[in-house]
Amino acid sequence: MAEPPAAGTGLRMGTPQARWVLLATVLGSGVAMLDATVVNVALERVGTDLGADFAGLQWTVNAYTLTLAALILLGGSLSDRYGRRRVFLVGVCWFAVASLLCGLAPDIGTLVAARALQGVGGALLTPGSLAIISASFSGPDRAAAVGAWSGLSGVAGAIGPFVGGWLVEWSWRAVFLVNVPLAVLVVAVAARHVPESRDPQAAARLDWTGTALVAAGLGSLTYALTAAGEQGGGPAVWLGAGAGGLALVAFVVVERRSRHPLVPPALFADRQFVAANATTLFVYAALGALFVLLVLHLQVVSGFGPLLAGTALLPVTVLMLLFSARVGALAQRFGPRALLTAGPLVAAGGVLLMLRIGPDASYAVDVLPAVSLFGAGLTLLVAPLTATVLDSAEDRFAGVASGVNNAVARAAGLLAVAVVPVAAGLGGADHTDPGSFAGGFRTALLIMAGLLVAGGLVAAAFVRRPLGATPAPAPAPAGPETGEGVRMAECLHCGVTGPAVHPPDRSATTRGPEPTGARPDAS
Q: Which residue segment(s) compose the domain that 41 sits in?
């Protein structure tokens, strides 16, 4: 096997080597993307086949999101220190093995455990994809490579629901098993053609304590909120909630005192950064719950098949592919505040329009208008939100700022999938009863619309500074993210799984957001 080229050689777009690097990174993020876009579609079949209750379906989603959200910042630090290609390959292999376990799971407990392992692989895989491109290219070629990566990821996000829906029609297990041959291809290409790179300024120590506290806090809270739907307010629920809250408080204390913090506290000295992340928290909480419950509702209540239910959200991807760059330009010209306010309100209107989706729903009459209005709101929101987060941080913190924002989005979705169904009265076997599920879904829609409105109001009240008006730099604390930093690579479905992400070197690319596909994911 040929030795891959050394980092820093400045690959040129259009060369065979550049094409191989793009193939490996796009396929690598696409492996995680496929799960992010289609596992929700598979939930109804999973519940039927494995006899799972609604809490089991919640954990099928949240086990993955929990480990991914808790470990993704650490994954970026590991990549910077030990080699981005190396950690990327470990993540792809780990993800493939976990996917195989998911596809072979004999019961819901095994599936949930395997999904948690998938999240660990995703946390190692996703930071490396865009970071490899940033380290392998330079100057105009880097900007072109990032644009190509974003565009190809958007195309993958668009075709993912079609492929995933078709796979679920055949077998829900195929959604996971298809990751294995894709991962083999990624490993073969990356091992031969992708250059290795590291951050020479990476910290000598990693923040294991902070990572453990985040994992414990999010895990305990998720358990408590999910269990509340099945057990009510029992002692175990209150104990889990209290333990989770204490762990997160301890995380804040540890980060303030650490010489190598996972999240530099200096970031939160900027009010605009805090406001942008608060908006992210509300908006992505709504999105996390919506994309689980809507796809279930379309199958359980409206009688849609997996393919049609999975592609119901395709207008979101299409709108963001077509208009994200233009919205980013508007934010750059007129400031982000109006767009960050209008976007969530328009999206909330789309959510309320989904109240019309009932047992005899027509895709063209009932689903398409609501989803299109919702997608228009996300298109107004996501690009300015990403730009505001990055513009609120100094250039040296660009990587960790986008990483924090992405982690906030994932944590918001994680907690929302646990708490919104409980607040809406969904649980037990409601996912098998169209009447019960329809009633809970209507209540959940009102909750999610309220979260979106809250996000818009936060932006209106606290986002003040126009893009480009970054305040004077503050003294730099020691930390592992002062160089290349953490790269959140899941640009896929950025309105679903997570915000769009920039390369760390903003001098080499546009200050505004790249035109990416619709994170939610996203993986």
A: 16-207+258-469+482-508
